[in-house]
Write a structure and sequence with these properties.
By secondary structure, the protein is an alpha+beta fold. The protein has four helices and four strands. Helix 3 links the parallel strand 1 and strand 2.
């Protein structure tokens, strides 16, 4: 082999070595770039999954809080409904008690005082005996109406005033229930 061939062979080998090194460097760079991209994608996906998990946990906590608040509200409503039922039950039992004639007379006096020129008092038929003497003394007519419960209706021409315990409870219920709720739950 001649010197020229040797030099050319060496140059070709050097070029091949350089190209091989260049190719290996490019391959390493591509592998590193692919690994970096894969790592970045993996980290991004991990962050996304963590965010989704956190959102899911937050939604579940919110749903649980809403469910709990709804259950509390429903339970409070049931307690207040039971309290009202008990109050109505006690009011309905008043006519059987000894104090009923006095309570009825006071209701009648309040209604008469609220309606100037009162002419007539209307009560439940069972309550007539309790107000006969009182109505006579006041110079008022006395009539029976089964529709009047736990109270009286006073008439003056076209005007009337009804003073009955269940209606009073109805009118006062918002305040009563608010005070009861405050006493029970603060």
């Amino acid at each position: 082999m001649s010197k020229l061939e040797t030099i050319l062979a060496q140059e070709v080998e050097a070029e091949i070595g350089r190209l091989k090194q260049e190719a290996e460097a490019k391959a390493r760079a591509l592998v590193e770039e692919a690994q970096t991209k894969a790592k970045a994608l993996l980290e991004a996906k991990e962050r996304q999954l963590k965010a989704q998990l956190a959102q899911g946990v937050k939604r579940a906590e919110s749903a649980a809080e809403l469910l709990l608040a709804t259950a509390r509200t429903q339970a409070k409503g049931e307690v207040l409904a039971e309290a009202r039922r008990l109050m109505e039950e006690r009011l309905l039992a008043l006519p059987k008690g000894e104090a009923w004639p006095e309570v009825l007379r006071r209701l009648a006096e309040e209604a008469v005082a609220a309606l100037p020129g009162a002419e007539k008092v209307v009560v439940n038929p069972e309550d007539l005996p309790h107000l006969e003497a009182w109505a006579r003394e006041k110079g008022l007519g006395l009539e029976a109406d089964a529709g009047v419960r736990l109270g009286v209706r006073v008439l003056s021409g076209r005007n009337q005033v009804e003073n009955a315990l269940l209606e009073r409870l109805d009118r006062a219920w918002d305040q009563v229930s608010a005070r009861l709720a405050k006493a029970l739950w603060g």
